[in-house]
Input
Amino acid sequence: MPFGNGGVWHKAHIVRRIGDSFSERVYLENDSWKGERVISEETAFIMRKMLREVVENGTGKKAALQNKELCGKTGTTENYRDILFAGLTEDYVSSVWIGYDNGINSQALKDASSPEIWKNVFGNYADSVESDASFPECENVKISAYCAETGKQSAKRCPWGGRGYYKTDHPDTCKKTHPLPVIKVSSSPAPVTSEVTGTTVPVTPAVTEAAVPAAEPAA
Ligand SMILES: [Zn+2]
Output
């Protein structure tokens, strides 16, 4: 939950509000609870982006929603004894667990998709909720390419590893001196027909080696 609201934890509760027949409030869970910071704003933001990646490009694709920015995480215990999925939208955190208390029938769980089940149980509802809730942005984190070799923020010549998130006051840039990568360029000229014999002679492709500079890291 703190990943979706800037690192602030709110006590989980089931009953949110109780009113009487005149809609007079009798009880409201959040009356006295203001929340407590448990992780930094930056860490919460980065975690949320990583959990978003799970739904966009990872194991949680089947849970993707149309209207809401869904972040999530799948889980599997050893030998498919349990499978689970936790999903986070701007409004809710919810999760499903699927399994057998005695651990039998792991094949059934192997064939099941916890993101798909989550979507059927919670997702479609979460997707239909109208609210003005939004995930907080974080100015202290910048998005930058990371070095495939060291995992640190890319400098010049670093091999491209992917998209990374970095605290602006602690960027931890790669300091390694990478050699220029060498790539092989091959070309296949058309076979040559001999004017004397009329036979066609295949030409061995020429192979040349060239040093190319690595891609510049994204700003
Ligand atoms: Zn590097």
